[in-house]
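Fold Annotation — chain and its backbone
Encoding — discrete vocabulary of local shapes
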Amino acid sequence: MKHLSEYRNPDRVRKIAQAIAETVTRPWTIMEICGGQTHNIARFGLEELLPKSISLAHGPGCPVCVTPVSLIDKSIAIARQPDVILCSFGDMLRVPGSRQDLFAARADGADVRIVYSPLDALALAKRNPDKQVVFFAVGFETTAPANAMAVFQAAEKRVSNFSILVSHVLVPPAIHALLSDPENRVQGFLAAGHVCAITGESEYWPIAKKYGIPIVVTGFEPVDIMLGLQRCITLLEEGRAVVENQYARIVPPDGNAPALRLIREIFEVSDREWRGLGTIPQSGFTLRKSYQEFDATRRFSIPDIPSRESPDCIAGKVLRGISTPMQCPLFETKCTPTRPQGAPMVSSEGACAAYYRYRRVQTAS
């Protein structure tokens, strides 16, 4: 295994950029799905190294960003119930709901706690048998095994005061939705390496063939991202609609078999609402019938809450790769990390947060 510095070597990054410039003959638009890739593209100024004919579109691969307002509202309603401890990753606390966020609910007295793993929430439930402990289970395929394991252990050890609020979404159906959008301008994709480390490559082949696009599985360091872009551009220039793995040191072709077995044991595929994309068929997970006693939406009688987003926020267009954060009228004015109007400004993987943090530094320098 090479040292991390090898994947951040600026000389190698520039050489790959030069090779891209020598390869490209026409304009192309490529989308990196993962918000982690978006942040490193902005952090290391990779887009500025590319030829002007190459445009990067930033995708919806930030689980915090695509969690719908309706589910944020539901999490707040659950947190306000008597004797409830709601646990979440830190990013979720500042994501705007219709009227407030979880951080404000905590300030109002709700017992909302930051954890680093669903197993932390399960341990909390064991220590507090007189409380109902709910974990806000947000994520793509990457976090599904850990959430599935928490439910599996809760069932095995009969921890009856533990439940999860499921907000799991899946990458391939989102790509289908993006490519079916009349406003779509994406011609090739960088698939997220950590997602594919769980799922493998097989689900991406039908997409490549149906829409005639290349998909390159890519890592997160600057060299990984540039190699992924180089390969995607080469495939576009050659007119080849295939799936290639540029992250083979981490991603096996068939994914992680034990993790997939656990996911299938606990979850089943269902329709899922996405912030900015609407409801996408068969694009998420829900608990199987045999584990529905751990479903927080069934455990708590929460009526439907009329939900609304900021009418001026263009987070939906940013998440679909149609607009950039800097095209939003609220960016850097009414919408900042301390006063976010939309989820992409909150999350550590959100495109708006990346532009705010890194583009401003690069402009100042």
About this structure: Residues 222-238 form the longest helix (17 residues). Confidence is low (pLDDT under 50) at residues 361-365.
